[in-house]
Amino acid sequence: MLSVISEGEYKTEFSDEKVMNILKKTMDTYHDMPSRPNLVIDNNRAWCSKLQLLDYLYPDAKVICCVRDPVWVINSFERIIGRDPMLSSYLVPVEHRATLHQRVNYLLSPAGAFGFAYQALQEAFFGQFSSKLVLVDYDSLVTQPLSVMRLLEKELNVPAATYDMNNVRYTPPTAYDKALETPGLHEIAPKVEPQKHPLILPPDVVNRLAGGAFWRDRSMNPKSVRII
């Protein structure tokens, strides 16, 4: 739709006002905005690459970025993909599945599930719309879940809610994971707490990813992006 509006042969038919109306009504319809006018949650990782558009449509919107040390993110991907002895997960194209290094290289590439999200995060973090970001560090969330949620509520200016961190209930996206041939991809434990898993990445991969948690370095945050 954006390509038709901004680049297609009908580009001259769309005024700035009409473009905004089309995009906002599309969002409002998709998210059923009339029934939830003040709070909408959309978990698409592409928003970090669309902050300028988001600011244009919804100036007060925030993007919550759940971040974790890349070493452990890639370790989790490899652990989940490796559950299937046939290595049939669509997270990695078949021509890149033969070895761990091939799988990691693809995941880290701009086309990979991690690589795209990581590059988009960097673009948002260091870009001109960084004030729209709120980063939530995984380690903080799993060790101090209630404190993190209270800080997040305050940051988003939403009413305090009641949480049971020992009994998290949700509807698992089973169909989504099945379509990716990666069952359990979005599975979460009922209790919010640190999960201990062995490191299964070779030293060279770990070294390659070391230091990737740039948000933990204060000198890398000159714009004072909010980090919880």
UniProtKB/TrEMBL annotation:
Gene3D superfamilies: P-loop containing nucleotide triphosphate hydrolases. It comes from the Bacteria. This is Sulfotransferase. It comes from Parasaccharibacter apium.
